[in-house]
Automatic annotation (TrEMBL):
Coiled coil: none annotated. InterPro entries: Retrotrans_gag_dom. It holds the Pfam family Retrotrans_gag. This is Retrotransposon gag domain-containing protein. Residues 102-112 have a biased composition (Polar residues).
Length: 297
């Protein structure tokens, strides 16, 4: 009997303990949540204390409720956000200084130097002109005449005549002419000049410019050249007169009366030849005017 009474008393005590445990509210969750009821004052106070414990330097942290790894990433984001902004000018200046320092270090490592190269490193100047010509300075603000460069293929005398005609407009000595003339050479002509012995040329006569390129010189035509200009078969009078007039310009000091006879001999048989034979012109100008009338017919 005593044992049964003790057993029933123990069961009642256990049931009472379990009943009290079920009625006891959860420290983190209100039993009336979702029913529109208000939390007890003790619960509100507990949540405020929890909120204060979870606050760090006035900033709320939700590390306790975030998945693993997120609190650390969020902390890094907040730290970057709280950093003071970097001034772009300072950053750019630092990058430029670092770049200049690295270039200077690399130059020093490879034996570089910012000092000018010694004169011995520069190639020695070699010029066919004498030292007297090289030492004389050209007038200030000189305007070098525009002239087609001579490359060694044209008539050298023609090039020299054109140069002297323009150089005469400049107020300078003969020494200045030599220096300016050098600027008109190119190609094979410049190669030839640079191969002349150093410091041996002091005038145009010693330069032998015309002599060296004389193979390209155009020699004037003689009177006998005019006899080769004839009116060919199937060629018009206009073509013959034009070729004859161009040939006259290549023959200096021609006798105009002789030219009339030469032109008449070069004509084919026709009315213009008969007209000249009946009344010969006295000058070349008269001959060309009469030829122009028959050309228009």
């Amino acid at each position: 009997m005593i044992e049964e009474a003790s057993t029933r008393a123990a069961e009642r005590a256990i049931n009472q303990f379990m009943a009290n445990r079920h009625r006891e509210p959860s420290p983190h969750r209100s039993p009336c949540r979702g029913r529109g009821s208000h939390s007890a004052p003790e619960d509100n106070e507990s949540r405020e204390n929890d909120s204060r414990d979870m606050s760090i330097d006035g900033k709320h942290s939700s590390h306790a409720s975030l998945p693993e790894g997120l609190p650390q990433r969020r902390r890094r984001v907040e730290e970057r956000r709280d950093r003071p902004p970097i001034r772009e000018e300072g950053a750019a200046s630092n990058r430029r200084e670092e770049g200049a320092a690295s270039i200077q270090n690399a130059s020093q490592q490879h034996g570089g130097t910012q000092e000018p190269l010694p004169l011995a490193v520069a190639p020695a100047r070699r010029s066919p002109f004498t030292m007297q010509i090289l030492a004389e300075a050209l007038p200030q603000r000189i305007r070098i005449p525009t002239l087609t460069n001579y490359d060694g293929t044209g008539d050298p005398e023609d090039h020299l005549d054109k140069f002297l005609a323009k150089a005469d407009l400049l107020d300078m000595s003969n020494v200045g002419y030599y220096k300016v003339f050098l600027t008109t050479l190119s190609g094979r002509a410049m190669v030839w000049f640079n191969q002349l012995p150093a410091h041996t040329i002091e005038n145009f006569e010693q330069l032998y410019f015309l002599h060296h390129f004389s193979i390209n010189k155009r020699y004037p035509k003689t009177t006998s050249y005019m006899f080769a200009i004839v009116q060919q078969e199937q060629k018009s009078l206009r073509d013959y007169v034009q070729r004859f007039s161009e040939a006259v310009l290549e023959v200096p000091h021609l006798n105009h009366k002789l030219l009339v006879s030469i032109l008449q001999q070069g004509l084919r048989r026709g009315r213009f030849r008969e007209s000249i034979a009946g009344k010969p012109p006295t000058t070349l100008d008269e001959l060309l005017k009469r030829a122009a009338k028959y050309i228009r017919i």
